[in-house]
Amino acid sequence: MQKSKIPAKVLTELNRRLNYELGAAHSYRALSLWCAGQNLKGFAAFFAKQAGEEHEHAKKMADHLIDRGALPELAAIAAPRQNFKSLLEVAQQAQAMEQANTQGIHAVYEAALAAKDYPTQVLMHWFINEQVEEEAWTAEMVERVQSATCAGSVSDLDRHIEKLLASDGKED
């Protein structure tokens, strides 16, 4: 492998984000399993789809690292939170994860700006735009779950969750 062309601080932040994306995939899988256990099949499918998207995000970062001569450094992934009292807690967990991810992506971008690492800045533009969408759908999901005040409305929301929160034309 060629010598890395990525400044050290940027490389550290990119590896941290790569591992966060892998951890987020693990966390979304846990949310999916919790929903499946509660017979919320729509939410289970939706969170399983999100787990796949997080893996794609990690791949995008890993490819960037490899293309620039750096071997991605994989870290241990902590067990995700798996016990929730309600669907609202699940939705709030997803929202908190996306808000934390936004802060981490901004940290990579700020490091890339300071180091004048233009290729990483361009990569992070994609992730910054993606996070606007991610935070928007989690906010919508929390709001919709909060307004589903009876078993029938939760059931209806579960049947329609993918249509409500996911667009078919969304890029991965």
Concise summary:
The protein is built from five helices and no strands.
Present the secondary structure layout.
Blueprint: H1 8-37, H2 41-67, H3 87-114, H4 118-147, H5 151-165
Helix pairs in contact: 1-2, 1-3, 2-5, 3-4, 4-5
Residue share in β-strands: under 5%
Order of helices and strands: HHHHH
Number of strands: 0
- The shape is elongated
Residue-averaged pLDDT: 93
Distinct helical segment count: 5
Rg, alpha carbons = 17 Å
Report on this structure.
This protein has 172 residues and is mainly α. 76% of the residues lie in helices and 0% in strands. The chain has five helices and no strands. The chain has helices at 8-37, 41-67, 87-114, 118-147, 151-165. Helix 1 (8-37) runs antiparallel to helix 2, helix 2 packs parallel to helix 5 (151-165) and helix 3 (87-114) runs antiparallel to helix 4. The model is unreliable at 168-172 (pLDDT under 50).
